[in-house]
Amino acid sequence: MNTPSHLILNLALLRRPVAPAMTWPILIGALIPDAALFIFYGWARAQGLPEQTIWGEAYYSDFWQAMFAVGNSMPLGLLGVALGYAFRRVWAGPWIGFVGASMVLHHLSDLPLHHDDAHQHFWPLSSFRLISPVSYYDSDHFGLLGATVELVLVLAATAYLLPRLNSVLSKGLLGAMALVTIAGYFALQIRPLV
Known about the structure:
The chain contains 8 helices and no strands. The chain is mostly helical. It is globular and about 45 Å long. The two termini are 23 Å apart. This is Cobalamin biosynthesis protein CobQ. The chain crosses the membrane at residues 21-43, 63-83, 90-108, 142-162, 169-188. Keywords: Membrane, Transmembrane, Transmembrane helix.
């Protein structure tokens, strides 16, 4: 699933109008699993690697797979939820809990949509990878189906969130993230079919 989709879906599922202060922890938790991927891509581009080498070789190196495993660890996300609950009466407790919960939601939505690029979601307890038959992008593994389900969920979550946001800025950012998802869908799924 694409990063903007995680941001939108996690906000729709976790943010409550009575607790808008938890927006930032939810967004941070939705980003943490993909943070190493952004660092990796920046490093690969700085090395001058071509796209095919980046995604066909470097991405699968042992070093980068180990880095991706940390951010994509469901046990670490659950640890955040547990710490948040244990320290719920302390100022940072709810923040930690919402970061952890958002990470776990990110992992749960990735599980059914990653095939060749499946993560080690149970690290450090296991290096097992759930290889889904469906990919969120790869047409050889029902990518159109995965991307369409993602797009529909993002559009529904956006429609749900828009009237619940108070500021023009937050509505604009949400709309921009939804537009990025729509543009990505057409660029990666529809354009190749034409």
